Amino acid sequence: MMAKTTSVITIGRQYGSGGRVIGAELAKRLEIPYYDKEILTEAARDSGICTELFEQHDEKPTRSLLFSLVTGAQMMGSDMGSSYMGMPLNHKIFLAQFDAIRRIASEGPCVIVGRCADYVLRDQANAVSVFLKADLATRVARAIERGADPMKAEDIVKRYDRQRASYYNYYSTATWGDVNNYDLCLDTGKLGVNGTVELLMEFIRQRENAMLLGTV
């Protein structure tokens, strides 16, 4: 079945803003592939680096250079792609994800959540970059719904946001959450999941029409 879009949609998100649920629902309605943690599996398969290492480093601030060099040395005997040899481990992990994201985007329309995908695909004409936010109370409530201790939920939300910001700011030349980096920023606390998905679909449709008419 032909996809209902020609776009690759990347979703950056504050923790608890519903990015994963919204991304999955958007992909379902557009009938295109959805990638969140699936990116880790794809990158591991392409690079030969074990999936567990991708999971340990997933959207987390870079560790010290010494840690990366020591851990990387311990992996010298592993089946790792030669193109990543000689690099600190955290750089190997990021570049493997970078390559996987570029490959996936080249294969057709899809939704990709997180992992600096908007930055990786910033020069791709059919890439639509989105950032999702919500007020702190909404995000804390969502974290509690997902099983967080109510007494610790606010700290958890803030910690994950710091981690994502640190990761993005380290590996890109942009700033996480800066509206200038994205085609569209939405408040999911005000729109809800369904409202956000519907608005995204309309935005994508309008953008693709404008591209066909040559007005963008």
Question: Describe it for me?
Answer:
With 216 residues, this protein is of the alpha/beta class. The radius of gyration is 18 Å and the shape is globular. A 5-stranded parallel sheet has the order 2-3-1-4-5, with helices on both faces. Helix content is 54%, strand content 11%. The chain has helices at residues 19-30, 38-47, 51-57, 65-74, 89-106, 117-120, 136-145, 153-171, 188-213, and strands at residues 8-13, 34-35, 110-113, 127-133, 184-187. It has 9 helices and 5 strands, in the order βαβααααβαβααβα.
Give a brief rundown of this model:
With 216 residues, the chain is α/β, with parallel strands linked by helices.
Q: What is the CA-based Rg, rounded?
A: 18 Å
Protein structure class: alpha/beta
> Mean pLDDT, rounded to whole units?
87
Following the backbone from N to C, one meets helices and strands in this order, namely EHEHHHHEHEHHEH
* Spans of at least 5 consecutive residues with low confidence: 63-82
Number of helices: 9
Residues in helices, as a percent range: 40-55%
* Order of adjacent strands in the largest pleated sheet: 2-3-1-4-5
Strand content range: 5-15%
Task: Give the N-to-C terminal Cα separation.
Answer: 28 Å
Overall form = globular
Counting DSSP E segments of at least 2 residues, the number of strands comes to 5
Biggest sheet, in brief? 5 strands, parallel
